Amino acid sequence: MADEGVSKADFAHGVGTFHLAKKTGTIDYVTPVHTATASLDMEDGRIHLVGQTETGQKLFDIPVNPQRNSCAPHAEEGTFEEFVPVSPDLRRIILYVDGSEAAEFSRGKAAGQRGITLGVSDKMPNKLSLDAQAAQAPGVTYKVQAKPAERNIWQTLAVGLPTPVTEVDVNQFPGSKSIEIRVLRSDGFSEAEIFKETKKF
Asked: Is pLDDT at 88 greater than 60 in this prediction?
């Protein structure tokens, strides 16, 4: 990442926990982003995120900046968040704590999906129902965004959904005669638009 501390490219934002004494930890979620902030304080480098290809080739080895409670700045356990570079070959991220493999996140693979539908609720006409016959899959999440059809900026309504099922309250867009809804599917390292529809009122 650039010296000035902020870079724009393809990154993944990972968040998790660590316990130095037990050499354990978790990777709680990973999401694709396009702007990353460089960590400045790495302490002694006891926590690392390592990126690998499908065959186990190392793509990066990045020390993680640990975060602890301000009342216990030297505690053995805490949380972390870190940005790692994403390339097409990246298949997994492994968390190492004091040299021991503590957790792993693998690029998600979407399960079979029969299509997404957007309907209007009979009982609540001010709400749109987004539904899909999609099975949950490890590492795969969905983001739902909406905007007035005449505008360019999308508003994120839901993120981290295990399936693209949610409701959209059209009252969030007063005065709009048509609303565009879209669904983005993430595998942790990248995301793609898989559904978009406009509803008129």
From this structure: yes
